Amino acid sequence: MNAVPLWAEAIVALLIVTGALFALVGMWGLLRLPDFFLRMHSPALASTIGAWCLAGASVLYFSMLEGRPVLHVWLIPVFLSITVPITTSLLARAGVFRAREAGEKQVPPAVG
Which InterPro entries does the UniProt entry name for this protein (predicted)? Predict the structure, then answer.
């Protein structure tokens, strides 16, 4: 096994801290935002960006450690980037349906 260079360890540490900060911002938005529709965007976006940062750190570290490209870790953020918007859309539709059933005035009427 190869030793990981100091510059790579510094970049990995920076990516890990950045990913953790994005996760913290997403959690803070989930707790502090007042409305369901506002709360669902903050964790979705922040956690996806945080996952990209952590996957980048993992790819860099293990590629340097192994001495060859280790790219299978990219599958995690790729699948997150595909599934998170779909899940967010389904949650938004369910929230709009529940708000209409409750008779809230802020929700636009149904189109059809």
Answer: PhaG_MnhG_YufB (IPR005133)
